[in-house]
Amino acid sequence: MAEATALTERFERALVYAAQVHGGQARKGSTAPYVAHLLAVAATVLEYGGSEELAIATLLHDAVEDQGGLPRLAHIRHRFGHRVADIVRACSDSVVNSAAGEAKPAWRQRKQRYLDHLATLDAETLLVSLADKVHNARAILRDLRKPEVGPAVWQRFSNPRQETLWYYAALAEAFQRFLPGQLADELAEIVAVLRTE
Fold first, then answer.
1. What does the DSSP assignment read for 80-143?
2. CA proximity to 156, closest of 168, 172, 143, 166
3. Torsional class of 103: left (φ above 0), alpha (ψ -120 to 50), beta (otherwise)
């Protein structure tokens, strides 16, 4: 049996940093604190054999895209190192300098660029991205099945249901190609259910 991954104070610092960066932020359409998503994705990465460094990158994977763009990425690089920052950047579908007034490209363009980008990533970075997408898909399915949410879950997204499903189906196909295994299969299974409900 493989030795357990040890988590050090570096992981603790990353968790505190993530909680501060996303402080007060809730999951889309939910009252759950955003850090719950980060913890769930980090747990998945660790459960699938990821290192402490990967778990740290997972805790920070949305900090750049959602909370500060390039200046935030530079801060992460300074505090947590090049590898963590490179994974965070690779897991972001858009990194802009919001402080300089840069705007994100259109949704479909960003998503297609991200799908194309998956082919260039190493297995560790793919694991972080896949764990994130699986948790997001699980959340959609869970809320779709809640009587108080149901089909209204699709209204949380800036695009119609069919566009969101296109993206998740394309992600599932890409991950089954580039990081085949149980987690990629789980994403494909969730997407198949979402298409029928």
1. H-HHHHHHHHHT-S----GGGT--PPPHHHHHHHHHHHGGG--HHHHHHHHHHHHHHHHHHHHH
2. 143
3. beta
Q: Which residues neighbour 108 within 8 Å (Cβ) at sequence distance 6 or greater?
A: 159, 163
Residues 6+ apart with CB under 8 A from 30: 139, 143
Residues 6+ apart with CB under 8 A from 24: none
Which residue is it, tokens 């759950």?
A: 32
CA distance 99 to 97: 5
Total domains, the chain? 2
Profile the chain (197 residues) by mean pLDDT over runs of 10 residues: 80 96 83 92 97 97 83 94 96 61 77 93 97 97 93 90 96 98 98 94
Do 95 and 13 share a domain, yes or no? yes
pTM as predicted: 0.91
Q: Are 80 and 56 in contact (CB under 8 A)?
A: yes
96 and 19, same structural domain? yes
Residue 2 lies in a domain: no
Residues 96 and 117 in one domain: no
User: Do 124 and 78 have their domain in common?
Assistant: no
Spatial distance between the Cα atoms of 173 and 167, rounded to a whole number of angstroms? 10
Among 75, 100, 125, give the residue marking a domain's end: 100
Q: Which domain holds residue 83?
A: 9-100
